[in-house]
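Researcher: I'd like a candidate sequence for this fold, 374 residues long. If you have to choose between options at a position, lean toward the conservative one.
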């Protein structure tokens, strides 16, 4: 039985459809993250699962029961919002106990449950404080604690960390991951933050314009993106995507020739497999992660592929040097180590292993699966 199941879920506002038939099977205990550009429908989808927004078509089930017409409080979910939504006139203890009190839970049981949740979130020394006397991170922990004590079937998080500064975000993210591990609960989480998505999720759902682009593990999303949109969206800096053509050499070998004169005559060897051969002469999109690129050294392995380029910009981020090469209709990023000897204006040769590339059909944008990138 699925933890949460969405079948052909659609949502329209007036005549305008914003969610176009989404199917998702979420296993019990999974941590699912919805990501996508602003306006793609992440929050709408989460709010429909929560019952805060009606659905126009399709079915939503929680633990095998269709909940389309079940009011939000009866769905067995707890939601944590970006804005914390704490009651300002109640203490931490009262905020966390409120839902249990409404359910007429015995007072001793409330004390025990709230005490345990406060302890697990390191809130025990703040239990009698009011929200105004707490930091943003502490307030969000109270909101999470309030969700925990209700013992929901499913936790829903709507960008819970976006109001926190970077250090607190990191800390609270680790707490949420720990919570998931210890509770083994089903969690669905909306975020703009790729690090949150890649570190927290057991599976990521990437959305664009109300359409599901890929639903897979973080590793698969990152290393085997299903299409050029996912490839360009996940990762910062994003995957380099450059147009090219599949060609055959005189001795019958296959390669991609990149159609960018600023990068030198780039030939990337391709495995001689039917998936590639049938696209001979056709345009493809070549994808290469910035971290798969290294600066060529005298001793570099001759079997590596090479790209020449002029560095237009160097961004030093502490651990890395991100170099940017602009060329007609695009740019290429390389993530080099902090000690890399590169400056703006340098003409350099980059190396990469042709086994680490992604390849997409230029017309459909879909990944070309082959022995090369398996
Ligand atoms: N109440 C509403 N009436 C009309 N259109 C709406 C309403 N709520 C959302 N929309 C539209 O639905 C689409 C999806 O919105 P949604 O808030 O789910 O996106 P999102 O991916 O969560 O965006 P963000 O990351 O900016 O929060 C958008 O085009 C938005 O304008």
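Model: Candidate sequence:
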């Amino acid at each position: 039985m699925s933890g949460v199941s969405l079948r052909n879920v659609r949502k329209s506002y007036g005549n305008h459809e914003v969610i176009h038939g989404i199917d998702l099977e979420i296993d019990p205990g999974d941590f699912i993250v919805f990501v996508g550009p602003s306006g793609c429908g992440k929050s709408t989808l989460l709010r429909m699962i929560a019952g805060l927004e009606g659905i126009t078509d399709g079915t939503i089930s929680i633990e095998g029961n269709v909940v389309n017409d079940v009011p939000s409080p009866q769905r067995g979910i707890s939601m944590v919002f970006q804005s914390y939504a704490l009651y300002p006139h109640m203490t931490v203890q009262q905020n966390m106990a409120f839902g249990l009190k409404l359910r007429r839970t015995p007072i001793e049981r409330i004390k025990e449950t709230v005490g345990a949740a406060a302890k697990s979130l390191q809130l025990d020394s703040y239990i009698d404080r009011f929200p105004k006397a707490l930091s943003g991170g502490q307030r969000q922990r109270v909101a999470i604690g309030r969700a925990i004590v209700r013992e929901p079937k499913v936790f829903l998080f709507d960008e819970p960390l976006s109001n926190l500064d970077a250090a607190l975000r990191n800390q609270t993210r680790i707490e949420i991951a720990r919570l998931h591990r210890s509770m083994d609960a089903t969690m669905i989480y909306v975020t703009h933050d790729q690090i949150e998505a890649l570190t927290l999720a057991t599976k990521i759902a990437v959305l664009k314009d109300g359409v599901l682009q890929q639903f897979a593990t973080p590793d698969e999303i990152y290393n085997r993106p299903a299409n050029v949109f996912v490839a360009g969206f996940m990762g910062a800096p994003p995957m380099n995507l450059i147009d090219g053509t599949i060609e055959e050499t005189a001795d019958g070998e296959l390669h991609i020739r990149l159609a960018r004169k600023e990068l030198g005559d780039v030939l990337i060897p391709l495995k001689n497999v039917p998936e590639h051969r049938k696209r001979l002469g056709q345009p493809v999109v070549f994808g290469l992660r910035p971290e798969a690129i290294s600066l060529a050294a005298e001793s570099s392995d001759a079997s590596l592929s090479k790209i020449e380029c002029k560095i237009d910009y160097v961004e030093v981020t502490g651990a890395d040097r991100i170099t940017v090469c602009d060329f007609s209709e695009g740019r290429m990023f390389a993530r080099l180590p902090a000690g890399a000897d590169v400056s703006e204006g340098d003409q350099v040769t980059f190396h990469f292993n042709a086994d680490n590339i992604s390849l997409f059909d230029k017309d459909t944008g879909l990944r070309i699966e082959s022995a090369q990138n398996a």
